[in-house]
Design goal:
Strand content: 15-25%
Radius of gyration: 16 Å
Order of helices and strands: HEHHEHEEHEEEHEEE
Helix content: 25-40%
Largest sheet: 7 strands, mixed
Number of helices: 6
Number of strands: 10
Shape: globular
Structural class: alpha/beta
Distance between the termini: 40 Å
Length: about 200
Amino acid sequence: MAIDQVHDLQEVFRKLLHSMSRPGSISSIQDTAQRVDYDLSCYDATLLCALTLLDGEVTFHILSDKNQHLTGKISEYTLARHAPIDEADYVIVFQNDTESDVLHALERCKNGTLVNPQQSSTWIMESMHLTNDDEIKLNGPGIKNCAHLQTGFSSAIWHARNERTNEYPLGMDLILTDSEGHAACVPRTAKVEMTEVR
């Protein structure tokens, strides 16, 4: 069964909004993901996030050359245009992207300005199985006391992210997806502390 481009994507949007307003909380979009009938080499949850958030008014960037075959498909499905990393509104990171590619992109992506902080990038990143185990600790708006999240990302990636978000309101928002149809968000407002070294 194909997804309903209106009803299902509105439901995905509500789940993402919930996770963005409560950093570290894991939302399940598994039911909708199971109905995805596109045969692409990415997580169904990643594709659903792209279908929900991208449209003809925004641009996106895919990191590595080995995933460029997805560029045309995502553009076709969403009408969004592919753009260089320093111009892209959305950055999509797939599970097989290398840490060096991610770190390089974190240095160069749109980060907003003090005058126009909204001119920053949102990242959709494929992670390992998302759990609320103790890899990173999150503090900030929308979090009571603290939240924990396990993603499988290295401490180098989190340190690089923290460098780009240390002057609020500058920074990027992260949407994390896994192969089980889960999504979690780490907005720029969240303070991230590594509790487990990778």
